[in-house]
Design brief:
Helices cover 57% and strands 12% of the residues. With 319 residues, it is α+β, with helices and mostly antiparallel strands. The chain has a five-stranded antiparallel beta sheet with strand order 1-2-5-3-4.
């Protein structure tokens, strides 16, 4: 490392810049593990040094950070990172589980866990946006009606878009797979291990299918085109299916798909439900009727009891 570069990395602010780069998506690949009941990211010392000396192909090294010219220079910086506790040495105790090592010195053959979390600006902004979004969702009942309609249309449109995207991806894969190739549009779209931007890269991937799949491809070909033949020769049933799907989408946008409420109830759904004077009078009348019916039942029961007692007295006298 040149003397100017050595002085550059002696400043902790510059070390922070280096660590921000190493912790970014352009930095070296890290693995996840559990240590002290917490998810951590770790890397082998040798891979960290290799990346600092010779980054992987396509890596954009920041222009404001001097490059490392030799392994000893990179190792010296790694030792400094251990001293200031940006990384610490760890030991594997099980698959996917680490524990803190008693040895603190840097060694290329050891594993090191990142303590430095990097620039927290984006995380703080995302956390703030998440909290604001959560509060907005909880206040949904008091939203203006036009915002509710807007959210409804956006949700339905997103749902339909995802459905058609997944369907078209599957059909495209099926058509090309039948002729012996595996073609995926946005192959990493549903890969949860990748970030948002990485999920859209590459746009298309195409590989030759593995050997031994010929019978499967022939079977799928026959089944698919048999369905197409049925759809063409039975236009009335298929047309009814298409019409049903169109009505389903119309009802979905209109909000009447599963509706069992009147339009008046929908418009007044957010208004507090206070009983009217007419409702209160009806309730009082119903209570009076219930009391009247109850009193009549009690009178009938008392009459029946008196009759039973009279019969018992007559029997006693005859005896």
């Amino acid at each position: 490392m040149a003397p100017a570069a050595k002085e550059f990395y002696e400043d902790q602010k510059n070390l922070n810049k280096l660590c921000n780069f190493l912790r970014s998506s352009d930095g070296p690949a890290v693995r996840e593990a559990i240590m002290m009941d917490k998810r951590v990211y770790y890397i082998k010392g040798e891979k960290l040094v290799n990346f600092m000396v010779e980054p992987k192909k396509g890596t954009k090294w920041p222009k404001d950070l001097p490059r490392f010219s030799s392994r000893p220079d990179a190792i010296a910086v790694c030792k400094e990172l251990c001293n200031i506790q940006y990384i610490h040495r760890s030991e594997k105790v099980a698959k996917g589980e680490l524990e803190v090592s008693r040895v603190r010195d840097f060694d290329e053959s050891a594993y090191f866990t990142w303590i430095y979390e990097g620039d927290m600006t984006n995380k703080n902004l995302m956390t703030t946006a998440l909290i604001i979004g959560f509060l907005c969702c909880t206040c949904f009942p008091i939203w203006p009606n036009f915002l509710k309609v807007f959210v409804w249309y956006m949700s339905v449109s997103l749902l339909i878009f995802i459905f058609f995207l997944v369907t078209l991806r599957a059909l495209l894969f099926l058509f090309v797979w039948i002729i012996g190739y595996e073609l995926w549009f946005l192959p990493n779209l549903f890969d949860e291990s990748l970030g948002f931007c990485e999920s859209f890269v590459p746009v298309v991937s195409c590989e030759k299918t593995k050997d031994g799949q010929l019978m499967y491809r022939v079977g799928v070909f026959v089944a698919f085109f048999s369905f197409c033949y049925w759809a063409v020769t039975q236009p009335s049933e298929f047309d009814g299916f298409v019409k049903g799907q169109g009505d389903f989408i119309k009802d979905l946008y209109a909000g009447t798909l599963l509706s069992d409420m009147s339009q008046k109830d929908k418009e007044n759904i957010d208004k507090p439900k206070m009983p009217s004077l007419e409702d209160l009078l009806k309730k009082l009348d119903s209570e009076d009727e219930e009391e009247k019916e109850l009193s009549e039942e009690e009178a009938a029961e008392a009459l029946l009891n008196s009759l039973v007692e009279d019969e018992e007295e007559i029997d006693d006298e005859e005896e």
